[in-house]
C-alpha cells in the first residue's frame, strides 16, 4: 500500500539551531505510527513543519502523493491532516458545543467520510457529552485534551497527528484515550502519535520511529526499535 | 438522534432570537421619543449618537467578535462621508445611491489598510490603523479643492424617501433609528452565523483556528472590511445630517471616541454598541460637563471598564443580574465541577 504521508529530507533550522536534520519518514495508510525521542529532539518541530506552522528549511512532504510542502496551516487542515497541540488547546471563551461546531465548519476537499455526523455524536465519541453546555475554559485538563482531539477529528482528517496526547492525563483518562485512538484507523483515519510514555506507545503502535538531535536514528517494529542499542543509548538513564 | 439535533437547532435559533429582542424593544421605545416633543438640541444629539452607533455595530464585529481593535475607525466613517459629498458634487449622486457607493468605498479603504496592517499582526495593528487614520486626515487636508482642504466640503442635497423630505429633524431622527435597527440586526445576524463563529474562533486562538482550516489572515481582513461597510453608511448619514464635513471630524480623537464607546458599552453583546453610543453622547449633557471635563470622565470610564468590566458596562450589568437571579444553582454546578476535577 502506498504511504499516506511521505516525508523526505525534511529539515528545519531555527537560527543556528538545527531542529530537524534531513528526516525521511513515511506513514502508512491505516497505521498508528509512534514517534519518540528525548526532549528537544525535534518531534514537535516535525509536526509543525508538516502542518505548516513552520516553513521547512529543506525537504518535501507528500500527502497522498500530493506535494504539500510549505502550505499554510489552514490549507494543510483542509487537505485532510488534523493535529492536536502539545499544549492542550480549545477556544476557552466559547462553549464546548460551539468549539466542535466551529471545527466542523471548515472541512476541505481532503475530508474523509464522516463517522460523526453531528457535533454531539463526536462529543459522545470522545466521552464529553456530559459537558456539552460548559465553557471550554472551565474544563478540567483531561477533558480539555479530549476536546482538542474532538476538534481535530471534526475537521474529518484522513491523517491525524497527535503531539503528546496523554501528557497530563491520569491512568483512567489515558486508558480511555488509548481506546479512542485505536478505533481511528477503523474510521479511515491514519495516526501518527508522539509521546514519551513507552507503555502507551507499546499499546498503540506497531511501528516506532526515533528522533535524536533532529535525525531519525531508528524506524521499525516497536519491539525491535525498543531493543535497538542505539535507541537504548539515547534513553540511557531515561524512562525507558 | 435526528430529533435531538432538530431540537438543538431550534433551541439555539430561539436563544439567538431572544438575544435580539431587548435591542428591538429599546429601539422601538427610542422611535417613540418624538411623541414627547423633544427639543431640537436633544434630537440633534440623538441623531449624532445614532450615526455613531451604526459605526459601532461594525466595530463590535471587528473588536467584539474578532478581537481586533481599530484606532482609526473614524477614518472609515470619513471615507464614507467624503464619498457621499464628492459623489453629490461631481456626479449629482443623491443620498440613497450614495449609501452603497460609500459603503463600498469604505470597505475598499479598509481592505487597503487591512492587508498590510494585519500582516504585521497583534498590537501593531492598532498602531497601523491609527497611523492610517492620521494619514487620511492629512491627505484630506492637503487635497486642495477636490477635498476642500481643511475647511472641508459642503453637502446640501435633500434626502427624500418615497417623495417625503427627510431633512426635517424628527424625520431624520426616525430614519437614523431605522438605520441603527438595521445595523443591529445585521451585526446580530453575523454574530449568530457560521461566519460569526469563525471570527470568534480567531479571537480566542488564532493558532488553533488555523489548524482547523480557518484562513485566519483572510478572515481578519474580511472582518475589517465588514466593519468598513457599517462605517461607510454611518459616514453618509453624518455628511447629509451635518451638511458640512471637514478632516478633523475623522482624525484621531473621533477614532479614539469610537473605540471608547464600544468598550464602555461592551463589544461582545448586541446591546453594547447602542448603550456605549448613547452613554458617551449624553453623559456630558446629563452631567453638564465642558469638553475638557468630559474627556477626563471618559478617560476614567475607559480605565474603569478595562479594569473592572472586561465585557463592558452592559456585560457587567448582565453578569450582575445573572448572579443575583441564579447565583445559587450556578455556584452549585461550579462546586460539582471542581469536585469532579479533583477525582
Ligand atoms: N519556534 C522555535 N524557535 C526556536 N527554536 C525552536 C523553536 N521550536 C523548537 N525549537 C528548538 O528546536 C529543537 C527541537 O524542539 P522540539 O520542540 O521539536 O522538540 P521535541 O522533540 O518536541 O521536545 P519535547 O519532547 O520536549 O516536546 C529544540 O532545540 C528547540 O529549542
Ligand atoms: Mg514536543
Secondary structure topology:
The complex is a heterodimer of chains A (240) and B (343).
Chain A: E1 3-14, E2 17-28, E3 32-36, H1 43-50, E4 58-63, E5 66-67, H2 73-79, E6 81-84, H3 96-103, H4 119-126, H5 141-154, E7 159-163, H6 171-183, E8 190-194, H7 198-204, E9 207-212, E10 215-221, H8 222-227, H9 229-234
Parallel strand pairs in A: 3-8, 3-9, 6-7, 7-8
Antiparallel strand pairs in A: 1-2, 1-4, 4-5, 9-10
Chain B: H1 2-31, H2 40-65, H3 73-91, H4 95-120, H5 124-141, H6 144-147, E1 153-154, E2 160-161, E3 164-165, H7 169-191, H8 194-204, H9 206-211, H10 216-242, E4 244-245, H11 252-265, H12 272-287, H13 291-308, H14 312-342
Antiparallel strand pairs in B: 1-4, 2-3
Helix pairs in contact in B: 1-7, 2-7, 2-8, 2-10, 2-11, 2-12, 3-4, 3-5, 3-10, 4-5, 4-10, 11-12, 11-14
The complex binds adenosine-5'-triphosphate (ATP) and magnesium ion (MG).
Can you tag this structure with a few keywords?
heterodimer; A: 240 residues; alpha/beta; 6-stranded mixed β-sheet; 4-stranded antiparallel β-sheet; 10 strands; 32% helix; globular; B: mainly alpha; ABC transporter involved in vitamin B12 uptake, BtuC; 14 helices; 78% helix; 2% strand; disordered N terminus; binds adenosine-5'-triphosphate; binds magnesium ion
The CATH topology annotation of chain B reads as ABC transporter involved in vitamin B12 uptake, BtuC
Number of helices of chain A: 9
Helix content of chain A: 25-40%
The CA-CA distance between the termini of chain B, in Å, is 31 Å
Order of helices and strands of chain B: HHHHHHEEEHHHHEHHHH
Largest interface by residue count? A-B, 34 and 26 residues
3D architecture notes:
The complex is a heterodimer of chains A (240) and B (343). Chain A has helices at 43-50, 73-79, 96-103, 119-126, 141-154, 171-183, 198-204, 222-227, 229-234; strands at 3-14, 17-28, 32-36, 58-63, 66-67, 81-84, 159-163, 190-194, 207-212, 215-221. Chain A is α/β, with parallel strands linked by helices. Chain A has one domain: 3-Layer(aba) Sandwich (Rossmann fold). In chain A, the strands form two sheets. In chain A, strands 6-7-8-3-9-10 form a six-stranded mixed beta sheet, with helices on both faces. Chain A is globular, with a radius of gyration of 17 Å. In chain A, 49% of the residues are buried. The mean pLDDT of chain A is 92. Chain B has a single domain (16-292), classed as Orthogonal Bundle (ABC transporter involved in vitamin B12 uptake, BtuC). Helices cover 78% and strands 2% of the residues of chain B. Chain B is built from 14 helices and four strands. In chain B, the strands form two sheets. Chain B has a two-stranded antiparallel sheet. Chain B has a two-stranded antiparallel ribbon with strand order 2-3. The radius of gyration of chain B is 21 Å and the shape is globular. Residues 1-5 and 328-343 of chain B have low confidence and may be disordered. At the A-B interface, helix 2, helix 3 and helix 5 of A face helix 1, helix 8, helix 9 and helix 14 of B. Bound molecules: adenosine-5'-triphosphate (ATP) and magnesium ion. Adenosine-5'-triphosphate is lined by residues 14, 17, 19, 37, 39-45, 86 of chain A.
Amino acid at each position: 500500500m502506498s504511504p499516506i504521508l511521505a516525508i523526505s529530507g525534511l529539515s528545519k533550522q531555527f537560527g543556528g539551531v538545527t531542529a530537524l536534520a534531513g528526516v525521511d519518514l513515511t506513514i502508512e495508510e491505516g497505521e498508528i505510527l509512534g514517534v519518540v525521542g528525548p526532549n528537544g529532539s525535534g518531534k514537535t518541530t516535525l509536526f509543525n513543519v508538516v502542518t505548516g506552522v513552520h516553513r521547512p528549511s529543506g525537504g518535501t512532504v507528500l500527502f497522498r502523493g500530493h506535494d504539500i510542502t510549505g502550505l499554510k496551516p489552514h490549507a494543510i487542515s483542509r487537505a485532510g491532516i488534523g493535529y492536536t497541540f502539545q499544549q492542550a488547546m480549545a477556544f476557552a471563551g466559547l462553549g464546548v458545543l460551539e468549539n466542535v461546531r466551529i471545527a466542523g465548519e471548515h472541512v476541505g476537499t481532503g475530508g474523509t467520510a464522516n463517522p460523526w455526523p453531528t457535533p454531539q455524536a463526536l462529543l459522545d465519541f470522545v466521552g464529553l457529552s456530559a459537558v456539552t453546555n460548559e465553557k471550554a475554559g472551565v474544563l478540567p485538563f483531561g477533558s480539555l485534551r479530549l476536546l482538542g482531539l474532538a476538534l481535530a477529528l471534526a475537521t474529518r482528517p484522513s491523517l491525524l497527528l497527535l503531539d503528546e496526547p496523554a501528557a497530563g492525563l491520569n491512568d483512567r483518562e489515558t486508558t480511555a484515550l488509548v481506546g479512542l485512538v485505536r478505533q481511528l484507523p477503523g474510521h479511515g483515519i491514519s495516526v501518527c502519535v508522539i509521546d514519551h510514555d513507552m507503555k502507551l506507545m507499546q499499546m498503540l503502535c506497531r511501528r516506532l520511529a526515533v528522533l535524536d538531535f533532529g535525525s531519525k536514528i531508528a524506524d521499525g517494529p516497536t519491539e525491535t526499535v525498543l531493543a535497538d542499542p542505539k535507541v537504548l543509548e539515547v534513553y540511557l538513564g531515561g524512562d525507558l | 438522534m435526528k430529533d435531538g439535533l432538530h431540537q438543538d437547532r431550534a433551541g439555539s435559533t430561539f436563544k439567538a432570537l431572544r438575544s435580539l429582542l431587548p435591542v428591538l424593544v429599546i429601539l422601538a421605545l427610542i422611535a417613540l421619543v418624538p411623541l414627547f416633543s423633544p427639543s431640537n438640541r436633544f434630537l440633534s444629539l440623538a441623531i449624532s449618537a445614532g450615526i455613531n452607533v451604526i459605526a459601532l455595530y461594525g466595530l463590535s464585529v471587528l473588536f467584539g467578535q474578532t478581537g481586533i481593535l481599530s484606532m482609526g475607525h473614524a477614518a472609515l466613517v470619513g471615507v464614507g462621508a467624503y464619498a457621499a459629498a464628492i459623489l453629490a458634487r461631481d456626479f449629482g449622486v443623491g443620498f440613497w445611491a450614495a449609501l452603497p457607493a460609500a459603503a463600498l468605498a469604505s470597505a475598499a479603504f479598509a481592505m487597503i489598510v487591512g492587508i498590510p496592517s494585519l500582516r504585521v499582526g497583534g498590537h501593531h495593528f492598532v498602531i497601523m490603523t491609527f497611523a492610517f487614520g492620521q494619514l487620511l486626515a492629512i491627505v484630506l487636508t492637503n487635497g486642495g479643492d477636490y477635498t476642500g482642504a481643511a475647511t472641508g466640503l459642503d453637502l446640501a442635497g435633500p434626502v427624500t424617501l418615497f417623495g417625503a423630505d427627510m431633512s426635517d429633524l424628527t424625520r431624520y431622527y426616525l430614519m437614523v433609528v431605522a438605520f441603527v435597527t438595521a445595523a443591529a440586526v445585521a451585526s446580530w445576524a453575523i454574530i449568530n452565523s457560521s461566519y460569526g463563529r469563525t471570527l470568534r474562533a480567531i479571537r480566542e486562538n488564532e493558532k488553533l483556528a488555523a489548524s482547523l482550516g480557518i484562513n485566519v489572515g483572510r478572515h481578519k481582513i474580511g472582518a475589517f472590511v465588514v466593519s468598513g461597510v457599517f462605517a461607510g453608511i454611518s459616514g453618509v448619514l453624518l455628511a447629509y445630517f451635518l451638511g458640512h464635513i471637514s478632516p478633523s471630524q475623522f482624525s484621531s480623537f473621533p477614532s479614539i471616541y469610537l473605540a471608547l464607546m464600544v468598550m464602555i458599552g461592551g463589544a461582545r453583546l448586541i446591546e453594547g454598541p447602542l448603550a456605549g453610543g448613547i452613554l458617551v453622547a449624553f453623559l456630558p449633557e446629563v452631567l453638564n460637563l465642558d469638553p475638557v471635563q468630559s474627556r477626563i470622565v471618559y478617560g476614567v470610564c475607559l480605565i474603569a471598564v478595562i479594569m473592572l468590566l472586561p465585557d463592558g458596562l452592559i456585560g457587567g450589568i448582565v453578569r450582575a443580574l445573572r448572579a443575583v437571579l441564579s447565583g445559587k444553582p450556578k455556584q452549585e454546578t461550579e462546586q460539582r465541577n471542581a469536585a469532579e476535577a479533583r477525582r
